[in-house]
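Task: sequence design from structure.
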């Protein structure tokens, strides 16, 4: 007696097809699961046995062998339980394989036969769509508004006789409504910082905020997602995949860009991902959104330096002895730092109490190579006291208006050149069709005087290009370049 059913396992954020092959033969009663499964997979024997008996199914008094093919692929998690149970039911003659041969079966079993959902539901649904299968899983309504697929809900093994197919509708084409709990109109003063963050949102730039304690660095960073444009379809699906694998599906509005703010005690694995099985870190959970590192010098040096490669490539590859996984990591990195341990180095109104050695040691925790990867560095000065007692928000920039500026700049850039500004190389940025000769001469003089690295020069050109897009200018002028340079060097005087 033999049966084959389809399921899948997660590798990173992707679902990989797996066949559940069930063979029942004469011999001493036994239950084997083979195929490179982890501890959770091996424990499926006890869960499946109890669930089948609780729901009135007969467990054959024979040798049951379950193979998860391909055998050399490592399998993780409890999502195989339902497929294994159905395979035993069919192989033992208590069900028909034709009922399940066009399904991708994913679910965890409880001891009374109840079926629970598992992480990665969006990944499984996308695989089912690609293979032309129906997804048999509990609570497929979680996919509503995320991905379109044909699903069959199941809450218990006792429901096998009354399964009904239902269509799950994905993201509406016109779903561009964004709603955030915070708004830039709540920020008092900081007009220059708000202008710079708007430019950063238009170009998807990394930003380092430097300033004394309590000047609004965290407040500014937390409002940055509210001015980012709506996600396109590909970004929406990628973000949903990451949220689903992390178990966060449904915790946030699906169309809202992620904002992650880990504590400075986070480990390197917590930030970039890893573990067994490999799970996404904070930089992947912030994919297509903002990763905010508050009190950045307090993070461990190894943790900060591990961000350098994914910031350049927009992805990271985690390699372990048993498997290698590629994770998406296209984020806007926003760091916030005090200029010294006491926080008042360079402040005009409050005296710094730190020694030069303490200041240097504190600032070296971030490291020059990582600072060089920030496109913009901003100084958040202390706002005027009088403004703190004004409740009238008229005259302040609101997030809706700033987001409109960002969208307008991106649309102008798309009309000019299909490639995003973030991906433009030096030769393209220095093209006479994009940059005036006077601007390039100004940059050359500034680069020699300020000892800018080649990477920093390219980043300044990119920022200048976005400033020109904000002004709807086809050419980068000298004024645009001077403003871009100011975002590169002015705050570093305090750091």
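Answer:
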């Amino acid at each position: 007696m033999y049966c084959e059913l389809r399921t899948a396992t997660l590798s990173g954020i992707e679902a990989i097809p797996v066949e559940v092959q069930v063979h029942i033969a004469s011999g001493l009663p036994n239950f084997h699961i083979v195929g490179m499964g982890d501890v959770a997979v091996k424990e499926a024997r006890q869960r499946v046995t109890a669930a089948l008996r609780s729901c009135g199914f007969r467990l054959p008094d024979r040798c049951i062998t379950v193979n998860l093919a391909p055998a050399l692929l490592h399998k993780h998690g409890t999502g195989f339980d339902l497929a294994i149970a159905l395979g035993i039911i069919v192989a033992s003659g208590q069900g028909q394989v034709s009922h399940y041969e066009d399904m991708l079966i994913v679910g965890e079993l409880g001891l009374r036969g109840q079926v629970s959902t598992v992480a990665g539901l969006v990944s499984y649904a996308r695989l089912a769509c690609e293979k032309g299968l129906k997804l048999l899983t509990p609570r497929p309504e979680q996919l509503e508004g995320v991905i379109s697929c044909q699903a069959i809900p199941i809450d218990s093994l006792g429901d096998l006789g009354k399964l009904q197919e239902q269509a799950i509708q994905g993201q509406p084409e016109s779903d561009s409504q964004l709603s955030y709990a915070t708004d830039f109109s709540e920020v008092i003063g900081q007009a220059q910082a708000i202008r710079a963050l708007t430019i950063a949102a238009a170009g998807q730039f990394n930003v380092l905020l430097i300033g004394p304690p309590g000047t609004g660095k965290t407040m500014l960073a937390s409002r940055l997602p509210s001015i980012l444009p709506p996600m396109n379809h590909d970004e929406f699906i990628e973000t949903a995949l990451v949220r689903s694998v992390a178990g966060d599906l449904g915790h946030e509005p699906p169309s809202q860009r992620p904002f992650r703010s880990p504590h400075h005690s986070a480990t390197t694995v917590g930030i970039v991902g890893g573990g067994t099985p490999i799970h996404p870190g904070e930089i992947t959970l912030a994919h297509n959104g903002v990763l905010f590192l508050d009190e950045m010098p307090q993070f461990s040096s190894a943790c900060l330096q591990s961000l350098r490669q994914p910031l350049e490539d927009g992805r990271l590859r985690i390699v372990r002895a048993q498997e290698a996984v590629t994770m998406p990591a296209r984020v806007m990195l926003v760091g916030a730092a005090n200029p010294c341990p006491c926080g008042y180095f360079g402040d005009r109104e409050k005296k710094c109490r730190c020694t030069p050695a303490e200041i240097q040691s504190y600032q070296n925790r971030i490291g020059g190579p990582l600072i060089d990867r920030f496109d913009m560095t901003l100084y958040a000065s202390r706002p005027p006291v009088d403004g703190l007692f004004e409740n009238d928000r008229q005259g302040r920039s609101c997030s809706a208006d700033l987001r409109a500026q960002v969208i307008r700049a991106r649309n102008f850039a798309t009309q000019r050149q299909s490639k995003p500004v973030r991906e433009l190389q030096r030769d393209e940025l220095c093209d006479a069709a994009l940059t005036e000769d006077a601007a390039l001469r100004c940059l050359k003089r500034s680069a020699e005087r300020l000892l800018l690295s080649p990477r920093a020069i390219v980043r300044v050109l990119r920022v200048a290009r976005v400033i020109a897009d904000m002004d709807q200018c086809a050419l980068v002028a000298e004024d645009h370049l001077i403003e871009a340079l100011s975002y590169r060097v002015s705050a570093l005087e305090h750091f």
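The chain has 18 helices and 19 strands.
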